[in-house]
Amino acid sequence: MVIATGISSVVTQLLTIREFLTQFKGNEIVIALILFNWLILGGIGTLLAEGIGDTIRVSLTGDPVQEVQSGYEILKALNIRQHGPTIISCPTCGRTRMDIVSVIEEVEQALSEIDKPITIAIMGCEVNGPGEAKEADIGIACGQGMALMFKKGKVIRKIKEKEMIPCLLSEIKNWG
Ligand code: SF4
Question: Which of these CATH numbers, 3.30.420.250, 3.40.50.150, 3.30.413.10, 3.30.470.20, describes 83-173?
Answer without folding.
Answer: 3.30.413.10
